[in-house]
Amino acid sequence: MKKIRGKIWLGMMFLTAVVLVFLWLFQVVFLDQFYRFVEIEQVKKQGREIAERISSSNDPSQILNEEELLGEIEKFTYQKQISVEIISTDYEIIYQSSSDSTSMLPGMMNESLLKVIETSVKGEENQLEAQHPRFGYRYELIGLPIVHNESTIGVLLIIKPLASIDEAVHVLTIQMVLITALLLLVSMLLAFIISKILTAPILRIISQAESFSRGNYDVRIRDIKKDEIGNLAVRMNQMGEALSKNEKLQKELIANVSHELRTPLTLIRGYAETIRDVSGENPEKRNRQLGVIIEETQRLGSIVDDILNLSRLQSGSIELELKEVHLNELITKIREHFMSGQYKREIQLVGFDQNDLFIYADQNKLQQVIYNLVGNALSHSLPESPVTIAAISDENKIRIEVKNLGEGIEESEIPYLFDRYYRGAHMTDLQGTGLGLAIVKSILELHHYEYGVTSTMGEETIFWFEVTKENHHKSF
To answer: What is the tens place of the pLDDT at every residue in 210-223?
Structure first.
């Protein structure tokens, strides 16, 4: 986790460094070029407007008689901190905004000035940077041709000192050093705090997972926030509850299966030893005891079959053999099975004599569902009371109900009845493995059938499932 916290901290510091790099680039490194581009373009734009107004007359010297235009030029030079000269095509100065416009440039820079003027006299705009050879001051020389009737009649020369830009860059550099130091300090502190806040819930989840790995499923995360990590914590808590429940079910399974297997195995062993040592020569006793051994062997086989069937159903390895099933015939067959043989219990049918009912299903799996539901109903019904299998059919669906009279089921237990190995308070004996209803659930869900339980304490319990007529061919 320290590595994750370190990565978060480094990531935030990297982001801060990127921001600082861009600040330095745009506020210091590129400021000179950017400022020059914006400022010079504005100067050139205003200079072109003045040159156009001067070109309205054939003689640039007429500007000396236009006080309004001269006032605008003076305002222009003051606002932009520049010097302006109007030069004829004979290189004579017609107008200059100050007496020392060109005299402020040393002689060594007059060559650059001359190049700008010569190019502009030819009708082309020209721009050149000149630097003071001794003091290093920089100037931008701009030459704008004054054109009348497509002929150059003069040149508007603009001299823009660049010292203000250099001073701004120097001030910003000092400022950026202070900002960088302060931003780095604040970023380091914030990165540490944020990384700690982000990793704290992850540490709790890791601790919870470690507890789960040691078999302690009771650990829960509290103070869950509504974000992605909070959702993970909720899922971890749910997993802990599921694991805890599963552990309880496993313990119940061991207890239940041990009990279920111990009884028939004890009987089989006891009767086998009796046959071997005592009644082997007595056909009547031997046959009776062999019959017990066979019944107990069948019971063991049933237990093993339940476990294997549920495992196969929940693993998804079973494919349904779907076909049209005649419910009336299937239910009648099941009724006869429970009313004869070892059960000899009354099974009442309701709603099967009105119409022939057909559904699309795996007949063997559906038969197992009804067998399990009826067997469960018989196990928990009042002695000698009948179990009812009802069919309720309308235009849209067929509903099958298995009802028994008995103690009923607590409402709090109903959501868990179809869980593996579940035994509620109403189950006073340990008969069965607790897998019957889980098998019912898996088969019905495999068929996409709705199912459920309703119960009234002290009166009756009804297990039901239903299939929609319109969609029963399309739901697979």
So the answer is: 888 887 877 787 77
